[in-house]
Specification:
The structure is a single chain. By secondary structure, the chain is mainly β. Helix content is 0%, strand content 35%. It has strands spanning 5-8, 15-19, 28-29, 34-37, 43-46, 53-57, 68-70, 73-77, 83-87, 93-97, 113-115, 118-122, 128-132.
């Protein structure tokens, strides 16, 4: 929980890079980003080649669970029971979900699961929640930032 995050060369087992922020849970990785929730309540995007921080998103006074990547978004739950959608290229919050009826989700500590248009997550209280994205979500989910047509679709 206290860090650091270290990248090792698979063939030589030597340290390629090291950052002081340690991940508290499962990480998500693509060719252009390594996404981690830190022990200090931040979501970081690191360059997987050299460990430099691309962006940092930090909600006030919340611990974050593991990030899950779906298209151009990262979904991450927090200790107060809110699920956040964060743009994985720019690190800006797109939206957040908390039941409108005031129901407390008792925190979201586990990773969400996404399939097609559906996002499923379990609250720390044991309730399963499902969110449905727009029907265009199944469109182009390009991994290339210069293409980014997925940014306008779905979530």
């Amino acid at each position: 929980f206290g860090g650091p995050t270290v990248a090792l060369d698979a063939s030589t087992q030597t340290v390629r890079w090291r950052v002081d922020s340690g991940a508290v849970s499962t990480m998500s990785i693509t060719d252009e980003g390594l996404y981690i929730s830190t022990g200090r309540g931040a979501l970081l995007a690191l360059d997987p080649r050299n460990g430099t921080t691309q962006w940092r998103w930090e909600p006030k006074d919340k611990q974050l669970g593991p990030p899950v990547r779906v298209g151009s978004s990262l979904f991450v739950g927090d200790s107060t029971g809110t699920v956040h959608a964060v743009d994985r290229y720019e690190g800006k919050e797109l939206w957040r979900y908390r039941p409108h009826d005031g129901t407390r989700l008792s925190g979201v500590a586990g990773a969400a699961t996404a399939e097609g248009r559906q996002l499923l997550f379990v609250s720390a209280g044991g309730s399963v929640h499902a969110l449905i994205g727009a029907s265009s979500l199944a469109g182009d989910l390009s991994e290339e930032p210069r293409v980014r047509r997925d940014r306008q679709l779905g979530w």
